[in-house]
Design brief:
By secondary structure, this protein is an alpha+beta fold. The chain is 23% helix and 34% strand. The chain has eight helices and 20 strands. The protein has a six-stranded mixed β-sheet, with helices on both faces. The longest helix is centred in the middle third of the chain and has 18 residues, at 166-183. It is globular and about 75 Å long. The chain starts with a strand and ends in a 6-residue tail after the last strand. The relative contact order is 0.12.
Length: 367
């Protein structure tokens, strides 16, 4: 295993800066995810770790060894690509054994290692089958086995589940996490899927337009976004521009031009992100913290509105409440049966708890 150090990394392609001023440490045995929209720099960063790209400036180190300009085949990294990159004319055994043959291991050693890793990915019964005869999920396991069999210090995965259907993605998420825990290997995973990132990662780096906006655990990223981009990209949120109005005891009051009433927010690190006086601000309100009632509600952050849309998704129900022409709140609740669903056109009260919102600076991103 290796600790990966990315020190002041910048990567330019001509006049385009794909990654800018990235400082990042990925610990030994960590499941670390690069998360962001297409074109944000996450795959470029992964390829710099793999050695497919060299940084324009900055250094890549594995432990205390400088790997910045070391060729990919000399880095002892395993790579799983989005399209699997398997050899369709070869059997499962031949695909998995390929890297070991390149390393000129003896045939008995190759057979032992391939058989062992195929048992771990639960494909030993398909050892002699052509990969073209396997399902998408099975092919993904072959790709994982081929990367793991060379015993890499770091395993790199570039959106490996994007070609699978929803049920297979769920299964493979669990499978990849099981293998990572079993091998204790450092794993760097690239995805634009928030559920993958939140459910699998030890830590997440959120990218946009070549910049890493935040690094943290899944709960930190979700509950304490550092700006409006992270708040919007990680899960769902109701996001409104606000300005600071005043402090009242242990709370701060923020005004929104789109609302007649102000928002009261607890003055804690959890509820108010760091920002400068010159920053434009926004309030992030997760749909699951929005309480709706057809009966009058007392307290701060209480608003009235009309139900404009009810969306049923199976396990949950999304209710959209229009407060005025400019503001519609989204509220999410677990499905507790048809009798609990609000009807479109109903007049309701909205309660926003002061301890469950987040004030963040605006990043200027359009994403």
């Amino acid at each position: 295993m290796s600790t990966v150090y990315l020190s002041n990394i910048t990567k330019q392609f001509g006049s385009v800066t794909a990654v800018k001023d990235l400082d990042l440490t990925i610990q030994e045995g960590e499941f670390f995810t690069f998360l962001g929209p297409s074109g944000c720099g996450k795959t470029t960063t992964l390829r710099m770790i793999a050695g497919f790209y060299y940084p324009t400036t900055g250094k890549v180190k594995f432990n205390d060894r400088d790997m910045t300009k070391v060729a990919p085949e000399k880095r002892n990294t395993g790579m799983v690509f989005q399209n699997y990159a398997l050899f369709p004319h070869m059997t499962v055994f031949e695909n998995v054994a390929f890297g070991l043959k390149v390393r000129k291991l003896k045939k008995p050693v190759i057979k032992e290692k391939v058989t062992d890793v195929l048992k771990k990915v639960r494909l030993d019964q398909f050892i002699d089958r052509q990969v073209s005869q396997l399902s998408g999920g099975q092919q993904q396991r072959v790709a994982l086995a081929r990367a793991l069999v060379i015993e890499p210090d770091i395993l790199l995965l570039d959106e490996p589940l994007s070609n699978l259907d929803a049920r297979l993605r769920d299964e493979m998420r669990n499978e990849i996490l099981r293998l990572q825990r079993e091998y204790g290997i450092s794993m760097v995973y690239v995805t634009h899927d928030q559920v993958e990132a939140l459910s699998m990662s030890d830590r997440i780096a959120v990218f946009n337009t070549g910049v890493c906006h935040q690094v943290g655990t899944p709960t930190e990223i979700y509950n304490e976004p550092v700006n409006d981009f992270v708040a919007k990209f990680i899960g769902e949120t109701n996001l409104f521009p606000v300005t600071f109005e005043k402090d009242v005891n242990n709370q701060s009051v923020y005004h929104s031009e789109k609302m007649a009433d102000s928002f009261y927010v607890n003055k804690t690190q959890l509820n108010i992100a760091e920002y400068d006086e010159a920053d434009r601000l926004a309030i992030s309100i997760r749909p699951e913290v929005v309480h709706l009632s057809e009966e009058p509600v007392e307290g701060k952050n209480v608003y009235q509105g009309e139900v404009s849309l009810v969306q049923f998704t199976g396990e949950s129900v999304h209710t959209f409440v229009k407060v005025n022409e400019d503001v519609t709140f989204k509220a999410t609740d677990l499905n507790r049966g048809p009798k609990t669903y609000l009807k479109e056109g109903s007049h309701v009260y909205i309660l926003i708890p002061e301890d469950q919102v987040r004030i963040v600076p605006q990043s200027g991103s359009d994403q």
